[in-house]
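Before drawing any conclusions, I looked closely at one protein, both as residues and as discrete backbone shape codes, quoted below without any editing:
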Amino acid sequence: LTRTAACFPSLGGKLYLKTPVTEIVIEAGRATGIKIVGTDKTYKSDYIIPATDMHILLRVLLKDRYPVPYFEQRFNDPENYPLLSGTLIAFGVNADLSRHPHCLSFEPAEPIFVGGDRKKTIIAEHYCFDSRFSPKGKSTVQFLINDYNYDYWRKLKTTSIEKYKAEKKRLSDILARELQQLYPETTGRIEMTDVC
């Protein structure tokens, strides 16, 4: 976003950061602008490109005026169409992983359970291609555990912040071992951990 924010105005665009959009304005069947929090003013635009999920787009920004049966079925039946979510575990390591594939999917060596469900596939990505994420000689590695356990995490956090933090720590400990197994050069060289 930093590069976009720097470049966009030089191309004649106006960029409003940290400005929540409340509505996409439709005129004559075409998106023509947006409204933002705290004002009724419409900001006109040639193009509107929503970078959000379909629930926010259809229900919030378009105010339920343009239902799409495919999505309505899913919104109205969360039991059969649960919300896909995921757990991200990131590590900053004092090792250069640029010789390894940028992204890979693998079966973890030790069983990983989230909310009672076993996770058989994990996605690992390193960001050595971008020096803002990985300074020379270091690497940022992110693991993604895809799941449908948003409610598990939400309930855990609202009922016991201690258990929530402990569960994040448990997963980061497991993934730290997986990291060092996938990339032996990272052993003992983890400098940063983040779980979200």
Notes: The chain has a mean pLDDT of 91. The first helix runs from residue 2 to 7.
